[in-house]
Amino acid sequence: MSQTQLHQPADADKFPEDIGPENIQRQTDLILESKHFRQAKSLEKFLRYVVAKSLAGEENDLKEYTIGMEVFQRGADYDPRKDAVVRVQANVLRKRLASYYEEEGLLDEIVIEMPKGHYVPQFHRQSLKTGLILPDAQVAALAEAGETSPAPAMENRQRWKIFGLVAATFALGLAMVLVWQNWPGKPRAAEKESGNVKAVNIVPDRNTIDPALTPLWEKFLEPGVENILAYGTPQFFVSSGLYLRDVEVNSPEESGGAARLKLVQQTIHTPFIPAEIYTGVGETHGVYLLTKFFTKLENELRVTRSRMVGWSEMKNSNIIFLSSMRFHTLAKELPFPSDFVMGTGVASKLINLHPQNGEPATYGGEGNGDYAVLTMWPGKLNQRRIMVLSGSTTWATLALAEYVTDVEYLRQLNQHLEHCRIKSGLAKHPPYFQVLVRTEVKDNQPVNLNYVTHHDLEIDNSKPPSSQPSGSPPSSAKGPNIARLTPPQR
Predict the structure, then answer these.
(1) What is the largest CA-CA distance in the chain?
(2) Judging by DSSP bridges, how do beta strands 197-201 and 190-194 pair with one another?
(3) Do 243 and 236 form a contact (C-beta atoms < 8 A)?
């Protein structure tokens, strides 16, 4: 049920007379229990806040600055001109509300929406016949007739009309698909003959892809390319059913100098054996977000453990490494530069190796927020890419997976990259870079994702990374085929 106390609105006339505060609050709870909001704690808090303020007649408080302070817990130095968290989250909220009413809320009587341009929600009664908003005159006519809602018989007829419309639409869509599949000369990626059966893989229409995706995902969405998602796993040690994880030990080779591991072994008088059987909650959820993202775009994504990816897989494929910055993956063996690395110890602090003007030398640490780094490197072939999504914690890794698969966050990132390009006087932004993202974690859920900065990297990929065997010592990030471009001042 509701976690927000109801208030009688100061101006009851602003609501349709057959929609009371209790109905609005019940509709809010119904929305927040849907699949579109069930795991979105920040959006839940945002929607409850604006609804409660509106019901209390306090719409004047629904300003960007106030919402940033009270909903997203910004500090005294919060400046909406520099921190777009409210605008970004408002766009996400509008999109989720629209998706809800297109699916689970198709037959709901009450519509809650937040029109673009402000943060005051609006409440309407929805027509069961068309899914459109009923005109005020029609609502008033129903009220005068003593009908606070359509009569049951009318409601049933309208529902059958909806179902009939859906069925007709489905049938029409199926017919169009069948016609299109048999249309001569249609685009196709590959054809395979097997007896009398012809298997056809259709190339998706690239024009239907949201332009916000292309700056980051362009190479991954090319027709026919193989994409591999390699998720990281932490290094565990097992002994007689006891599993031990030391965050400072991330490979079997590092166990020899691990004092705490040795102390435990001496205490129980049993040696520990390296094991790789678990991964973090954030990495698991991140795999789900990325596979859902690629499925929606009709692109294949092969998922495997990071240790199962070798140099042969990297030869012709795009690789996405999804892993905590602590875990050891093949990405750490690539001879490419990285400006943000994990510090030693258990504090999850990131080191900024090449601070730009105004940037600190470190980020995060105990109680200072969680950070994640998006890295874009060249693949072994010039037209392939290696993307590394890594967080200082498992929740930061999850936050970054959400950041790169959400169109609104990608638009935010694209604005920063475009500003950098214009300031640098380049025709196109450099293809290789690192992006630092900050997230707050509440109740083991990442909330309030925000771009912090990005560093551009210049890499001479005319000489691909050497095919050294997996598990060999990491190569230097400053090898002879690497040149670093000092990022423009931001």
Answers:
(1) 83
(2) antiparallel
(3) yes
